[in-house]
Task: structure prediction
Amino acid sequence: MTKSNPVLDALRGRRSIRKFTNDPVDRKDIATILDAGRWAPSGLNNQPYRFLVIHDDDARAESLAECTKYGHIVKAAKALICIFLDKEATYSEMKDHQGAGACIQNMMLAAHSLGLGTVWLGEIVNQQDKVLDKLNLPADRYELQVVIATGHPDQKGSATRNELSEYMLEDF
Result:
């Protein structure tokens, strides 16, 4: 029998949640999630990610909903965590995007550990110029990576994965 491991359990247990209750998300929980993102690895430890939190009672939430075909999820979330790369802090496009991905994953795992649900809204980057304009952020400085819709889950997520052998280029 395999011994339980909280990190592996969190990795295997986290699911994308697209429906949320009306319960507010505690600001301390948001701070914990943001702090988890801050601890993600980044090339040269440059930490080029920047965060903007928009609560559901903020008019900007409605504006963001207009920027994605998943506007219904944006409207249902109690908090939206927008993650950007600060172009003035970047040094390698590939490594900086990898670091942002690690940051996003850290945040989503932290939210899961707090009993919160999240979903990674990547499609919204297709409207990056519109998003930056609505948030009054300069496009020459910031690059939108994702919006994480966050709240108390009002559904159970589900997921399937292929067998590990399907990912392997050769046996190990």
